[in-house]
Amino acid sequence: MSEARPPHARTPGLRYVFPVAAGKLARFATRLRGGGSAFPGYLTNRLAPSLLPTLAGQFPHGVVFVLGSNGKTTTTHMVSEVLRAHGLTVFTNPTGANLPQGVTSALLADATLTGRVRADVAVLEVDEGYAADLADLLSPSVILSLNVQVDQLYRFYETERVADMMLEASTRASSHVVVNRDDPYLSKIDVDAMRGEVSFFGVAPEIIAASAHGLANADDTRSGEAGALGHRAFAEVTAVDGRAVTVSVDGSAVDITLPAKGLHYAADAAAALTVAARVLGSSFAADAAADGFARMAPAYGRGEVIPLRGAADGEQVEFVMFKNAPSLQMNLDALDGAPERLLLAIDEGTPDVSWLYDVDLDVLDHVDVVTGEKAYQLALRLEHAGIPMGLVEPDMEKAVAHMRSLPDTASGRQTWFVNYELMMIGRRILGHGDQEVARR
C-alpha cells in the first residue's frame, strides 16, 4: 500500500521547530493541570498551518480514517492493536481527540521537533464534520465508516447529513473504502463513485435479530428503503458469547476476545479486521490478529477498570462511556443484569437530553448515585421509569466521595455509566488523569 507522496504534502523540516516546540510546551503545561488535549494542537496549527499535511507522506502503509456516529475510539484502538500485532509501528490519536487540533495534539506526542513521526501507518479517529477537509489534507489510503446513528442533532440536524459527510469523505480514499453492510444509510454507498475498492463488514442477521435493540443504527428515511442492502461481508460476526466472538474473515473463522462485552464491540471488531486485512494485504494473518485482540486493553474510558480507592486489590470501578441514545442503549444491552452498584452521570456537554426518554432502562433495578450538571434531568427520567435512586448530586467530586464511602460490593466492582467529560473527571479523581495509553 506504499504510495508516492501526495503533491500537496510537504516534508517536515527546521521551519517547524518553533511551532512544534511551542505545542509540546503547551501540551506539557496543560497536562500538568489535568487536561487540555486539544489546545496544544490548536496553537501549533495556528503557528504552522502546513504542518498537518506533512503527515500524508510519512507512512509507508498510508493513513487510515475511522468515521462513525459511535465506536470510533474503540475501533481505532482495535485497528491499531491488530496492526501492531503484525509488527507495524502505529501512529494514532488514542484519546478520541478527533478534530484537526486533536490530530495535531496527538502528533505532538510522537513527533520530533522537526515534525517527523516515525511510524509505518497512521490510524486516525476523525470527526465526520471535518472528514472530507482532513482527507484533502492527509490523503487517506483507507476510510472506514462504522455507522450512522442519532447523535448531535443540535449540531448536524439530520442523520442524512452525517451519512452524506461520511460517503463524501470516502470518495477521497485512494485504496480502500470499508463500510457497514448493516447500516441502512451506508449500505447504499455508490460503489462506482469511489476511487478505492469497497469492502463491507457486518453481523450475522440472526445475531442482530436476537439482540433486544439490534445495532441501533438510524433508519433510512430518505430512500424509502428502510433496511440495509445485504451485501456480502468480507468480515462477518457469526457467534457472540460474552467477550468471546467468532468472525468469518473472507470465509475463514477467526476466534477473538473482545476488550469489553457488547454486540456493538463485536461489530467494531469485524470492521477492524476488515481494515487491517486491507492495509496489510497478503501479510494479514488471522492468528496474529487474534493475538492482537487477546492482548488488547479496553480503549480509553470504554470498559476500563480502575481501583476505586487506589489499592489494586480492592474495590474497582468499570467505566462505561456513552454519548447518545444508541451508545447508552447498546451498553445497557451488554449488561448481564442490573449492576450491583451503579453511578449514572451526564453533564452540560449534552445540550438536549430529551433522547434519554428513547432509551429502554428496564435492565436497571436501582441507581446509587446520579451526578453531573444535568443530574436532575437524568433523575427525572429514572423517576418516570420507576427506578429507585439513592443520592442525586450534580457535583462529580462529591458523588465520587459518596461512592467511595459505600461498603464494598460482593463482586468487588462498581459500574459507572458516564459521558465523555465526566469520564475524564472521574478518571482524574481516581488518580488516572494521564490521558496517554501505552504505545509500542
From TrEMBL:
Signal peptide: none annotated. One of its GO terms (molecular function) is ligase activity. InterPro entries: Lipid_II_synth_MurT, Mur_ligase_cen, MurT_C. The keyword Ligase applies. Belongs to the MurCDEF family. MurT subfamily. Forms a heterodimer with GatD. PANTHER family: LIPID II ISOGLUTAMINYL SYNTHASE (GLUTAMINE-HYDROLYZING) SUBUNIT MURT, MUR LIGASE FAMILY MEMBER. This is Lipid II isoglutaminyl synthase (glutamine-hydrolyzing) subunit MurT. It comes from Microbacterium resistens.
